[in-house]
């Protein structure tokens, strides 16, 4: 199973799902809650997944919806950004990720240098 072309329009996240035969089970979660979804065949091995986003789950900040198989394999995700400070939250998160990446790069370089010396 593979999901592509995800987008949000009029409060509904939709994507195309490619699957040989009937699609296997999967769950959509947003803010740690399972969200109902619909799957309809378009043609052949192509299906459409529709997830109406409940207004009660939309709020300030950044929320990420996850589409995953029962074993945990992530098929797709979507992000909702809302509120006045959402841009600042996003920039702060990116800055934190950059700092963590720099830390990992330095540790990796030290490890490689130590291994090369033997």
TrEMBL record:
Lineage top rank: taxon: Bacteria
Name listed for the protein in its UniProt record: Uncharacterized protein
């Amino acid at each position: 199973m593979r999901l592509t072309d995800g987008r949000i329009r009029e409060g509904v996240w939709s994507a195309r799902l490619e699957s040989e035969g009937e699609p296997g089970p999967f769950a959509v979660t947003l803010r740690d809650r399972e969200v109902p979804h619909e799957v309809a065949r378009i043609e052949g091995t192509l299906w459409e997944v529709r997830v109406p986003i409940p207004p009660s789950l939309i709020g300030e900040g950044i929320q990420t919806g996850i589409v995953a198989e029962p074993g945990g394999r992530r098929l797709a995700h979507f992000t909702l950004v809302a509120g006045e400070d959402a841009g600042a939250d996003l920039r702060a998160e990116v800055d934190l990720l950059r700092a963590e990446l720099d830390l990992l790069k330095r540790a990796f370089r030290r490890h490689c240098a130590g291994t090369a010396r033997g």
